[in-house]
Amino acid sequence: MSSSPIFGQLERSLADYLTGITYRAQFGDQRTAATVARCELPRLVTALRAVLDEHAPDESGRCNRCRTNRLGRAPAPCRAYLSAHLCLVATDEDSPADAEDTPVPVRRQVALGS
Ligand SMILES: [Zn+2]
Asked: Greater confidence, 90 or 34?
């Protein structure tokens, strides 16, 4: 499956930005890493919040943005919230009970300062 040229450009641009910022945070010198933390990290948080705002769940954890299943219901919890939680907050011991049908997100790599 190929994406449209416009979306492909958008997708590549975003992927390149994320790859670049990750590289600079992990392998840049201390000044570069600090710049990423102070300048780019807040932008990333803003972007993640914007995505999560699009997925505002109701009291049952379902949102109107996630694709509905065969029964016409959105999955609960909202997959955007679940992925963000798994990548950023959850530890290996915190895996949700219904994880068997949940796509496995790419686990974050933690850059350790020296
Ligand atoms: Zn959602």
From this structure: 34
Whether 113 is in a domain gets the answer no
Q: Which of 54, 78, 98 is the last residue of a domain?
A: 54
Q: Residue 63 sits in which domain range?
A: 59-107
Question: How far, in Å, is the centroid of ligand 1 from the Cα of 60?
Answer: 12
The continuous run of DSSP H or E covering 9 comes out as helix 5-27
78: amino acid identity, one letter: C
H/E element, 86: helix 79-88
CA–centroid distance, 53 to ligand 1, in Å, is: 9
What are the tokens at 79? 């997959």
Which pTM value belongs to this model? 0.70
Query: Ligand 1 is a single-atom ion; what residues have CB below 5 A from it?
Result: 55, 63, 65-66, 78, 80
Of the two residues 109 and 56, the one the predictor is more confident about is: 56
Are 24 and 46 in the same domain? yes
Compute, in angstroms, the gap from residue 2 CA to the centroid of ligand 1: 24
